[in-house]
Design goal:
single chain; four-stranded antiparallel beta sheet; alpha+beta; globular
Length: 325
């Protein structure tokens, strides 16, 4: 059961070595896994097969499908993302032939993101690892989890296969809030206690953007990366959410990772004096925004969001990381 995570500060620039802050949220991914005796035998394939079902309320994946290690082009379009994520983690255990039945359930809308691919991969890794190695345990405290994360060659391999920075894995594994930085030699993960304002919320627009393509075309400069890092570390000293959120928006506003419609939303909310700060988070393909609502204006903000067919994520911050049961 991994909690999902959301980037607070430093998203995108973390790929270029800037420090970033992220936190888990109370939305969780539930994964059930068991050996199957009813799946077809594919003697020359590893893994042999997977029976995959998604019982989430708004799942668009159907009820049940059998995935194999065959050519992914034979997999129906609506299952390809699930196929990629599942085959990715099962390839990690390529030394074993695994016939598995996997049931998924999530607490969030499918459009919301929140590092769902890494949550699925991490949970499957922990579940299969504990099945193959009964001595495998997940440390209890965030500090011990962070230390284990940085020292584990298996988790490092998991991240390298994913080809990301590793911040989603680090946050979901450690739980709570962390400072993350990818250096030339390692990934540094430090649990940090944060105080979240009551008027800080996650706004979902449902408008996904191709952030990977945007990042590739952004060509972040060394100067931008340094500005992001300075803003992150300044926030850790001052705890000034309004300043940090607005600083990050200004740093990224002229790059492809912030579409013009987000700038227009911010201008509208500021002109109505409903919010005092707004920025993207990277979650949900750019769908999720971090918004600081002005005092006594939340009701107006909720009405404004509904008029635009947006919704607020009703989540708690700093929940625990991946757990096994």
């Amino acid at each position: 059961f991994p909690s999902h995570d959301i980037g607070l500060f430093g998203e995108w620039a973390v790929l270029n070595g800037a420090p970033a802050l992220a936190t888990t949220v109370s939305s969780r991914f539930h994964v059930g896994i068991q050996d199957s005796k009813n799946l077809p035998s594919l003697a020359n394939e590893k893994p042999a097969s997977m029976k995959f079902s998604d019982s989430s309320p708004d799942s668009n994946l159907g009820d049940t499908v059998i995935l194999t290690a065959l050519d992914p082009r034979n997999v129906a379009e609506k299952w390809r993302r699930a196929y990629r994520d599942l085959k990715f983690i099962l390839d990690f255990f390529s030394s074993r032939t695994l016939d598995l039945e996997i049931q998924l359930k999530r607490d969030w809308k499918i459009s919301e993101g929140y590092g769902s691919s890494s949550a699925l991969s991490l949970c499957l890794f922990a579940a299969i690892k504990s099945r193959l190695d009964p001595s495998f345990k997940i440390p209890e405290s965030p500090t011990e989890r962070a230390r284990a994360f940085m020292k584990s060659p298996e988790i490092e391999k998991l991240i390298s296969l994913d080809r990301g920075s590793g911040i989603d894995f680090a946050t979901q594994w450690t739980g709570g809030s962390i400072r993350f930085q990818k250096t030339a030699d390692a990934r540094e993960v430090t649990p940090i206690p944060l105080s979240f304002p009551e008027n800080l919320c996650i706004l979902h627009t449902g408008k996904k953007t191709d952030t990977r393509k945007a990042i590739e075309s952004a060509q972040f400069s060394t100067t931008l990366t340094k500005h992001v890092g300075a803003s992150v570390d300044a926030f850790l000293k001052t705890g000034d959410w309004e300043r940090a959120i607005n600083e990050h928006f200004e740093i990224f506003k002229n790059t492809p990772v912030i579409p013009s419609w987000i700038a227009e939303l911010k201008e509208e909310l500021f002109s109505k004096k409903i919010c005092s700060a707004l920025k993207t988070t990277g979650a949900g393909g750019g769908d999720a925004l971090l918004v600081l609502i002005r005092d006594n204006r939340k009701e107006e903000f909720v009405e404004w969001a509904a008029q635009h067919e947006f919704w607020l994520g009703a989540y708690n911050f700093q929940t625990e990381g991946v757990t096994l049961s």
